[in-house]
Amino acid sequence: MQSGYVHGYSEREATRLADQANCLSDLLHHDSIFPENSLILEAGCGIGAQTKIVAPKNPKSKFISIDISEESLQEAKSLIQSLNIRNVEFQSGDIFKMDYTDEYFDHILVCFVLEHLPKPLDALQSLKRILKKGGTITLIEGDHGSAYFYPDSRYARSAIDCQVQLQKSNGGNALIGRELYPLLVNAGFLECSVSPRMVYVDSSRPELVEGFTRNTFTAMIEGVRDKAISGSLIDKSSFEKGIEDLYRTSESDGVFCYTFFKGIGYK
Ligand SMILES: C[S@@+](CC[C@H](N)C(=O)[O-])C[C@H]1O[C@@H](n2cnc3c(N)ncnc32)[C@H](O)[C@@H]1O
């Protein structure tokens, strides 16, 4: 999975993940509060972009944040240290091969990871084994089918579709948000619920224009430019027009909408 991770591990991608987490922190995490004294697994923590938001919200709990990428873990460690956040321990680990004993964690958080995994249901089952009875799993994912904007553009939609296809050919699923409920239920979690979290951006919200439309979403689509063109998914000028049209939605009369999904299930 690591080598096929569609967004890669570049510095630009690290900045994009940080922008994404910062501008969406209230929308996605205003309710990421766990009971005090919990032991929480953050599976697939990446560079710590969510860790730095969620860990300080739960100062009396301890986080074990794991990732398969050593490089990302190193970055996450220095970020969390630099912020003097003390309730996080980083460990190297693969979601599919967890060493922890059964029912080890009180709660589990998985953010923007399932969309990259060829077998998300197996991942959930692997995580369920190490979750205590009565504990919760929280999943947060996007769904690129939920992107719509003004002015509309078939080029922009085709450029987005390149990302969907490339992610699919890497074994992932950029449309996974809509599947969180069935995934949780099929993995055997109880009392499952999903709340859609819509990001609505127009020029009256300049932080979201920069942080979300430009630096998170459009930057992500721009990031697959070379692979999309060399893989003949689209021609160069159509892709470039698509990116131009996505940036166009961030102008003074533009609008951009996208929905994230946050799902919770109990063991
Ligand atoms: C899009 S990043 C999200 C990182 C972080 N959760 C965030 O929201 O900023 C996906 C992360 O999942 C990690 N990952 C992918 N497959 C994994 C696996 N099998 N076990 C652990 N981590 C994995 C990747 O290395 C990457 O850091």
Give a description of the structure.
By secondary structure, the protein is of the alpha/beta class. 40% of the residues lie in helices and 24% in strands. Strands 1, 2, 3, 4, 5, 6, 7 and 8 form an eight-stranded mixed β-sheet that branches. Helix 4 links the parallel strand 2 and strand 3. The chain is globular. It starts with 10 loop residues before the first helix and ends with a strand. The mean pLDDT is 95. Residues 1-2, 5, 17, 21, 44-46, 49-50, 67-69, 72, 94-96, 111-113, 116 line the site of S-adenosylmethionine (SAM).
Structure characteristics:
24% strand; 267 residues; Rossmann fold; binds S-adenosylmethionine; 10 helices; eight-stranded mixed sheet
Question: How is the secondary structure organized here?
Answer:
Layout: H1 11-23, H2 25-29, E1 39-43, H3 51-57, E2 62-67, H4 70-82, E3 88-92, E4 105-111, H5 120-129, E5 131-142, E6 148-150, H6 154-169, H7 180-186, E7 190-202, H8 206-222, H9 225-230, H10 236-248, E8 255-266
Parallel strand pairs: 1-2, 1-4, 2-3, 4-5
Antiparallel strand pairs: 5-8, 6-8, 7-8
Helix pairs in contact: 1-8, 6-10
Residues 1-2, 5, 17, 21, 44-46, 49-50, 67-69, 72, 94-96, 111-113, 116 line the site of S-adenosylmethionine (SAM).
